[in-house]
Amino acid sequence: MKNIICDIDGVLLHDNKLIPGSDKFIHRVLEQGNPLVILTNYPVQTGKDLQNRLGAAGINVPETCFYTSAMATADFLKHQTGNKAYVIGEGALTHELYNAGFTITDINPDFVIVGETRSYNWDMIHKASRFVAGGARFIATNPDTHGPAFSPACGALCAAIERITGKMPFYVGKPSSWIIRSALNHIQGHSENTVIIGDNMRTDILAGFQAGLETILVTTGVSQMSDIDKEPFRPNHVFACAGDIDVV
């Protein structure tokens, strides 16, 4: 039985509205007993928040199925030396870091960690740049530059710090294969028996390809059939929507 890693936005939901058929797909997967990870690059919501979000759209999933770039970032940092972090992000990210044993501080941090936040400001850019230039390791939850309606996302917030310091962060989220490995560890799964379902060739499908997973593209989100030929890699399967998937 295959492990399933499934994206949220563009696969299951558009904003907070159900993509028709995705509820039946997820409920069928749960009934079959496939190990399931619902994976998102968005670090602002906790597993409980995401459970409530999907539940409101008619998809009922246990909280333990959700895995975010904030969780993967905390997992990544557990494997590094140092336990002090200056954080630009919301409560869900700091919650995961506290749980991993980190001290959140602006005094000699070992890491500068950037997620998504609407309260981004000049002072944050200044402090983060000073710490990174001084040797703090620069970590970002995901490389996405924008969300719906061109709302600034993590990659855009990192850009100012990158330009000032000349240093690139390590991006934990898709298309990095780190978040895939972290999600698989979360369910004690292995890449050779796992399929990833996503709507974006350059994040979901590339991450799956780099991690050695079977890949399924659905065309209800970012990437369309015409986009497949623009990339040097191919998804293993393409479906019009999650409700049509018949290979798991």
UniProtKB/TrEMBL annotation:
Keyword Kinase: no
Keyword Cell cycle attributed: no
Cofactor(s) the record lists: Mg(2+)
Catalytic activity: a ribonucleoside 5'-phosphate + H2O = a ribonucleoside + phosphate
Ranges that cross the membrane: none
Entry keyword set: Carbohydrate metabolism, Hydrolase, Magnesium, Metal-binding
UniProt EC number: 3.1.3.5
InterPro entries named among the record's database cross-references: HAD-like_sf, HAD-SF_hydro_IIA, HAD_sf
GO molecular function: 5'-nucleotidase activity; metal ion binding
One Pfam family linked to the record: Hydrolase_6
Any one annotated GO CC term: cytoplasm
Name of the top EC class for this enzyme: hydrolase
Role this protein plays: Catalyzes the dephosphorylation of an unusually broad range of substrate including deoxyribo- and ribonucleoside tri-, di-, and monophosphates, as well as polyphosphate and glucose-1-P (Glu1P).
Family: Belongs to the HAD-like hydrolase superfamily. NagD family.
Protein name as annotated: Ribonucleotide monophosphatase NagD
Species whose genome carries this gene: Shewanella frigidimarina (strain NCIMB 400)
